[in-house]
Amino acid sequence: MNNTQIYLNQLKEWKNLRQIQQEMDLPFCNNEKLTDNLISNEQKIYKLNKVIRQDWRRKIGDLTSSIYKSTLWQTNISDAQGAEYHYSYETLLNDENAFSDLLGYSIQGMHNKTFLFSSGMNAISNILYCFSSFIRENLNIQASVGYFETKYFFKILSSMGNRINLDIKCDIDANVFYFEPIKYDATLSVTNIDDLIDRINNSKAKIKFVIMDSTMHNRTNIFQNIIKKISNIRNIVFCDIRSGLKL
């Protein structure tokens, strides 16, 4: 690879990081620019990546500290962006519950429900087990993920007879759509939301579950924007999973 190609790749990575800063509403400084010094550019990219993680950790702590501490059973809380949360605890779940019992009320009248789990992966695994039990068939998951532990868990699900497809552009009749708006890996790449919406609309599954891991994204209106472009939301359950321990 010649120096020109390396420089172009650096520009692309720099642009992606700047876009992530903007998407996450983090402090943004226009003074720093890339130059023709490739080594200096690599140092700047590394520094910016580190700054994004530090600023996000600081911001998410400020946003969620009041939500996650000592939340009482059946508490209703609004976050900084006005989204409401109705809390229950994972210790109240058991394998004898019906799906509607887990949520606290019938699916038909359901608006929102929030469970606190001991970890993000605990939330992911329990939610998927719950869905599988509810539909009484194997899961057909289409996913756009970066976090290694989630990928490993999907491998385990695949070994149990569930179908896993990690290409969001493939047209399959998935009943579970799992995505990270900003992928939790070294690339910090983003999920193509338009491709995701196309897959949801084209799926012929009788009931669909759309699960978002928004750990790397602090906005709560992603689902609202997606819902506007989905042809039929009456047979869709939306789940937003957030980990307070990442980064």
TrEMBL record:
Entry superkingdom: Bacteria
The protein's name: Aminotransferase class I/classII domain-containing protein
In its UniProt entry, the species of origin is given as Lactobacillus amylolyticus DSM 11664
